Amino acid sequence: MSSAGPRPRVVLGVSGGIAAYKACELLRRFTESGHDVTVVPTAAALEFVGAPTWAALSGKPVSAEVWTGVHEVPHVRLGQTADLVVVAPATADLLAKAAHGLADDLLTNTLLTARCPVVLAPAMHTEMWEHPATTANVATLRSRGVLVIEPAEGRLTGADTGKGRLPDPEEIFEVARDVLGRSTSATPGGPADLAGRHVVVSAGGTRERLDPVRFLGNRSSGRQGYALARAAAARGAEVTLVAANVALTDPAGVKVVHVESTAELRDAVLSAAATADAVVMAAAPADFRPTAQSETKIKKADDGSAPSITLQQNPDILKEISTHRVHPGAVIVGFAAETGDATGSVLDLARAKLARKGCDLLVVNDVSGGAVFGSTDNEAVILGADGSAVDVPHGSKSALAHLIWDQVVARLAPSSPQYTS
Fold first, then answer.
1. pLDDT of residue 202
2. Is the bond preceding 393 in cis, omega lying within 30 degrees of 0?
3. Predicted model pTM
4. CA angle, corner 145, sides to 114 and 232, nearest 5?
5. Is 218 a catalytic residue?
6. Phi, psi of 271 (to 5 degrees)
7. What is the pLDDT of residues 356-396, one digit of tens each?
8. Residues 105-116, buried b or exposed e (16+ Cβ, 10 A)?
9. DSSP-assigned letters across all residues of 217-228
10. pLDDT for residue 187
11. 10 Å Cβ neighbour count for 325?
12. Mean pLDDT of residues grouped by 10 in the chain (421 residues)?
């Protein structure tokens, strides 16, 4: 982060759940990246992590009471001056109070006075998350423009396992930073621009099995697809991410379906696309697969000869979902990694691909010399079926992701049912 200008002011709320200790890592990420953080725990949160820990990590005094430093009117000032409020973990009790406008401590007062984006990261047992009261409270908060991140699935308190686990602090930080960087997309008083939408994103590169130890694959890292999924979640969407052979942490608030082959990718995308308002095919499916797979490892020949492998073409997933749109009005986005050849330039080939596939948008990457793959940065041209072309200069994959979603939002039907899960 640049040292120029004031540091972004973040209020980190912590409510009383066992996951409160994980907020220490979230706090560390905010402070180390140059944010000015004020920690506001509830009294219950202080039973899990004491005030001295929060004070030492934030460099600021910590209190849960509205009466501490009352001459500075903290119950109003904190919310008024914050650039972002994040609550992690957000318990069922905290969600209920926030939805109903209760204000019986410093954190709930801060939530009422905040005029900045608010991000809540719930953590609770599955039964509490799925209770109709919690479902209604979450729907109410989302309708007001609050970003309520979907909890993760996994080990909970004791031996219990299910949905309700606090997402990884690193991923909460990435979503929060995304929201902070695009605060106009999540201002109170109205939902974010993808709120109520279901979007599907594919990421990574598929692998086609040759034998038990070898496969045909490609160099796609999945970073751009993950950036797209994270950006969509930050803009309020319900996100299904179909990930092919990706070694990345699952984004916070995103349903992730892990696959290996192109056939598995196709099945997962088609299933999720049936209810999707938009599908972004950022994955790199293998174009071909072996006609036969060896059940044993293919051995080297003593005479130095190489085995012959016969290939067959894989299904064209992008063309299939573009041609047969199960969800009316869905926006379909494809990616083209091109190098140009004797038949045409990168853009010539991309425009031909856009027409051939039938999608609404095509994000074109020039991958000459292996550019883009595995990098944290990207540059592209976003081509539209309507003849538009948006040049995206070199920058982060997150920035490109938001520009892609800008183009998608501009093409979405006016309304879509709110999701509540």
1. 98
2. no
3. 0.84
4. 120
5. yes
6. -65, -45
7. 999 999 999 887 765 555 567 788 999 999 999 999 988 88
8. bbbbbbbebbeb
9. -----SHHHHHH
10. 41
11. 15
12. 69 95 96 95 96 94 71 72 96 97 94 94 95 96 92 81 90 91 51 88 96 91 94 93 94 94 97 96 94 89 86 94 88 88 85 95 82 69 95 90 95 64 45
The residue whose two tokens read 């200008």 is 5
The residue type at 12: L
As a whole number of angstroms, the distance between CA 170 and CA 243 comes to 19
Residue of 378, 415, 420 whose CA lies nearest to 194: 415
> Would you give the DSSP letter of residue 40?
E
The length of the chain, given as a count of residues: 421
Q: Is 231 helix (H, G, I), strand (E, B) or coil?
A: helix
Partnered with residue 153 across adjacent β-strands are 163
Residue with tokens 């979503």: 175
Q: Which residues pair with 4 in a beta bridge?
A: none
- The set of residues, in sequence order, having a beta carbon less than 8 Å from that of 48 and lying 6+ positions away, is 16, 17, 18, 20, 21
Euclidean distance between CA atoms 326 and 382, whole angstroms: 24
Q: Domains of the chain, with CATH numbers? A: 9-185 (3.40.50.1950), 198-411 (3.40.50.10300)
Closest CA to 408 of 197, 262, 251: 197
Q: What is the DSSP string of 256-309?
A: EEEE-SHHHHHHHHHHHHTT-SEEEE-SB--SEEESS--SSPPPPPTT-PPPP-
Cα–Cα–Cα angle for 16, 17, 19, rounded to 5 degrees: 130
> Binding site for CTP: what residues are annotated?
287, 297, 315-318, 335, 353, 357
Which tokens is 370 given? Answer: 């292996």
Q: Provide the 10 A C-beta neighbour count for residue 32.
A: 9
DSSP 133-183: HHHHHHHHHHHTT-EEPPPEEEE-STT-EEEEEPPPHHHHHHHHHHHHHTG
Residue 420 confidence (pLDDT) = 45
Quick one: how many helices (H) and strands (E) in the chain? Answer: 13, 19
HSE at residue 177, side-chain half, CA atoms within 13 A, is 22
Q: Specify which residues 342 forms β-bridges with.
A: none
CA 285, CA 270: separation in Å to the nearest integer?
14
Among 218, 245, 365, 378, the one annotated catalytic: 218
